[in-house]
Amino acid sequence: MSDVAALVTPLILGAGFGFGLWVLTIAVFPPRPALGASLAHATATPVPSAAADITDAGWITRIGRPAVAPLRSMGLPGEQLTRDLAVVGRPIGTHLAQKATFALMGLVLPTLLLGPLVVLGLPMDWQLPAVAGPILAALGFALPDLRARAEATRRRAELRHALSALLDLVWITLAGGAGVDSALSRSASVGHGWAFTHLQRALTAAHLTRTTPWAALRELGDKLGVPELVELAASVSLAGTEGAKVRASLASKAAAVRTRLLTDAEAHAHSATERMSLPVICLFLGFLVYASYPALTQVITGL
């Protein structure tokens, strides 16, 4: 029986650890959606979010709902994460509920995996759940933050692309003799998708509240954490109050945004190239070990 336990226990623990790593990898790096689904999502009419703080009625959110108030009293989430959630469009209560649920699942997962072994009468050490539980709980608590940051980074890049296209349209509209306010409104109404929807809402709110459009753009840039919007608001504000050359200012701003987008794309390509070289290096090292192992064993045994 002891031999069977010594053989079965590592297999079960290894399978559980591998399954946990696979789930964690899928959660952090979800598979890319199909091109048709991405285009349909980009062109779909946005649905306004509900006023309630917790909009997700899934079982993950329901389990973690009682922990929302304590986590908020601890000052969570931070300022930067709050901006990321605003970009993603996820309520703070839903995010905190998910963090609490994932932490609880990570805490009890080692005990659940070892429970059947204890029922079968196999000897198990209590140190493993005591050590693995808090580690998995910490990983589960940080997992929603990592996902929110990754998605917010992707959406901010999408907003920068939309801003670059908006600036080109505004420059062309201004060349046709339109004013600054009408040029911004007409150019924003042409585009579709998440980024243009936020720009349209900001300009519409400025029109309804009778405030300047650059003030609305500055507020949107501060809320979403996009400095290019704040800089654009400063340029348009200068043109509207100081009589500066708005066309030249917007053209230079559009060129600066495109330069940054190209730089970010080049850096992302270099990073992807470096990540692709790592498996090749590991494969080469494995081949060296496989090829040199017989010679090393003969030398060692010969001594």
What does this structure look like?
The chain has 303 residues and is mainly alpha-helical. It has a domain at 2-28 and 52-152. 81% of the residues lie in helices and 0% in strands. It is built from twelve helices and no strands. The protein has helices at 2-28, 35-43, 59-64, 68-73, 79-88, 92-119, 127-175, 180-190, 194-208, 213-224, 227-242, 246-302. α6 packs antiparallel against α7 and α8 packs antiparallel against α9 (194-208). The protein is flat, with a radius of gyration of 27 Å. Residues 47-52 have low confidence and may be disordered.
Number of helices: 12
Structural class: mainly alpha
- Number of beta strands: 0
In percent, how much strand structure appears in the residues? under 5%
Q: Can you give the mean pLDDT?
A: 79
The termini sit apart by 39 Å
* Radius of gyration, whole Å: 27 Å
Extract low-pLDDT stretches.
47-52
- The helix/strand series, from N terminus to C terminus, equals HHHHHHHHHHHH
Provide a concise account of the structure shown.
This protein is an all-alpha fold.
Q: Top keywords for this entry?
A:
single chain; 303 residues; mainly alpha; 81% helix; flat
How are the SSEs placed, and which strands pair?
Blueprint: H1 2-28, H2 35-43, H3 59-64, H4 68-73, H5 79-88, H6 92-119, H7 127-175, H8 180-190, H9 194-208, H10 213-224, H11 227-242, H12 246-302
